[in-house]
Amino acid sequence: MKIFFVSDIHGSIYYAKKAIECFDYEEADYMVILGDILYHGARNPLPLKHNPKEVIALLNGFKDRIIAVRGNCDSEVDEMVLEFPIMATYSNILYKNRRIFLTHGHIYNEENLPRLGVGDVFIYGHTHIPVAKKEEDIYIVNPGSITFPKENNPNSYCILEDNIFRIKDLEGNMLKYIDISQ
User: Fold this and answer.
1) For the chain, what is the domain count?
2) DSSP characters for 112-144?
3) What residues contact 129, with CB distance under 8 A and at least 6 apart?
4) Is 35 exposed, middle or buried (0-12, 13-18, 19+ CB in 10 A)?
5) CATH number of the domain where residue 124 is located
6) Which percentage of the chain shows pLDDT scores above 90?
7) Distance, C-alpha 120 to centroid of its chain
8) Residue 80: domain span
9) Which of 32, 41, 85, 181 has the fewest CB atoms in 10 Å of its CB?
10) pLDDT value at position 41?
11) Torsion-angle region of residue 152: left (phi > 0), alpha (psi -120 to 50) or beta?
């Protein structure tokens, strides 16, 4: 199984389309959206081609293949127009005897980790900075931001396949990776 992770679309149809292009290119089975789907947020400028209605229509076309969690810029009204649930603060995926804890990062984050077991994965968005590391017995992954990357990072997403998280730019070039089989 191949899982595609993306975070922080912030209502940009331009970058939502880029995410779908990468999802298709990667031939992923499922897409995990780590929050901040439609609204750009009070601290961000309007993103390139901000058009939440088009983002809604695009993502709803993939509703059966999306798992999503709520970001700090997501609201109940967003879930009323999206045809997949987004209001959970976190979710879990079981992957090869590991738990992958999915969250946005504004509640649970590297300074406030949930209870995880040895070898589990904590994956979050929110910071717009890609991360792939192991701290103590936990793997920590952040795909960065598809729309608003920070700290001179490129727009990015993440793929999980064969026990390896690969963070890539929009051209498919690998930026960071971590092997969780070790």
Assistant:
1) 1
2) BPPP--TT-EEE--SS--EEEEEETTEEEEEE-
3) 142, 144, 149, 150, 151, 153
4) buried
5) 3.60.21.10
6) 93
7) 17
8) 3-179
9) 181
10) 79
11) left
What b/e readout covers 77-111, taking b as 16+ CB neighbours within 10 angstroms? Answer: ebbeebebebebeebebeeeebbbbbbbbbebbee
The mean pLDDT of 151-176, rounded to a whole number, is 97
Cβ-contact 137, 155 below 8 angstroms = no
Helix (H, G, I), strand (E, B) or coil at 92: strand
In the structure encoding, which two tokens stand for residue 170, read together? 């929009």
Asked if 7 and 143 touch (Cβ cutoff 8 Å), the reply is yes
Average pLDDT of the chain to the nearest whole number: 96
Separation between Cα atoms, residue 116 and residue 108, nearest integer Å: 12
Query: If you count them, how many residues does the chain have?
Result: 182
Torsion over CA of 125, 45, 51 and 127, rounded to 10 degrees? Answer: 0
**Hey, what are 142's tokens?**
């952040």
